[in-house]
Amino acid sequence: MKQNFTVRQGALDGVEVFLSVAQHRSFRRAAAELGVTPSAVSQVVRVLEARIGAALFIRTTRSVGLTEAGERFLSRAKPAFEELVAASEVARGLGQRPAGLLRLSVPRAVVPILLEPLIASFCQAYPEVEVEIAASKELIDLAAEGFDAGIRLGQFVDADMVAVPLTPPFRLVVVGSPGYFAGRDRPEHTDDLRQHACLRWRRSSGALAPWSFNDNGHAIEISVSGPLIANDYSTMLGAAVEGVGLAQLPEPMVADGLSAGKLVHVLEPFAPMISGVFLYYPGRRQIMPKLRAFIDHVKSGSAGQGKIPGTR
Hints:
The protein has 312 residues and is α+β, with helices and mostly antiparallel strands. It is built from ten helices and 15 strands. It starts with 14 loop residues before the first helix and ends in a 13-residue tail after the last helix. Residues 16-67 form the HTH lysR-type domain.
């Protein structure tokens, strides 16, 4: 059975009127300052006194003074009310211009390639915003953990988030070092991976991620085995360059290794396309100016799109 609830009167009701009367020692001058009638001021003060349970003013036909209760109430209420007004101004300022602390949850691998150049230019453009970067592989609840936004592969962004693309879609490619292939045949089909050392990635959930492929338009997943398990792409990339085994990684992340001859592509016809990297955040109505400024900065292409590795 639904109950009826009412919002009780707050302890601050009437305090501003009380302070104005106490300052001017006049109901009429307080009413003029507040833009209301003297009778309205008197009514508010009477309600406040009734709620407190003590008379706050001594009223005569010629003057208004404070009772002892009124003096004590004034000594505590005035600084507290001024602090509340100041707090409101601070909050209002954050709602009107880009300022304050902007907290971002990002994968470690994007920090040097995406965030270092992007944050440098953003901080120059918006000096009143402080940027905090929490680099982690974990997928977190932005609201619960106090973050303004996150950066992840599109496939890991929840449907109820607003997502802004940071990169175009790109492929997941299998690579190995020339040293690894010395004396080994290169795989020609995904079934050939059974004869190869494959570097594996452990998800934040604890599960080992299978390798994903596109076989003539059909998405397939293959469980692989090998000598190394890592929980971030950077470690897997370094191990692949050193010849520990094959790795399946975002194509932008291996571009430098391929061009330098440290890595070679295999199984290119089976490389799946993924959606790319996204900046994501809760609903549009909750955007503060600091986040809106960062989103606009990202969209302007300050960091150079298309060069960002996809990570979780």
